[in-house]
Amino acid sequence: MKNHHGGMVLLKGFLFGFNDGGGLTCLELKTGRVAWRNRSVGKGAVVYADGHIYLRSEGGRVALVEAGTSEYVQKGVFAQPQRSGRPAWPHPVVADGKLFLATRTRCWPTTSRASSGPLGFSRTFESPPR
Questions:
Q1: Sign of the torsion angle spanned by Cα atoms 109, 92, 56, 91
Q2: pLDDT single digits (tens) 1-17
Q3: 109, 114, 69: which is closest to 92 by C-alpha?
């Protein structure tokens, strides 16, 4: 896998990450076999939490994908609000029951898991910290 900037997640012998030019890829680490591939939200960064891969594209779209190895299953997608319009490369961060998304100058915590199902996918954001 040729990873540009978005990191990778190793889970149960499978590697999840954005393969440069190939989209989001699930690859069996031991054999190098591609289990599945999908263009998804475009090039970006990944993080794993609660059985899901959280994808954050450099263009601002965020998707939730099952961390499965048989097929690409997208559970939800939303556009990050209040974006600068410039590419953003910070990785999504999961902490304290929240999904944090950042640009070059701001950071937004999404709503808590308890009120929205998987982190942040109620499309509700809290006010950015000052």
A1: positive
A2: 788 777 899 999 999 99
A3: 109
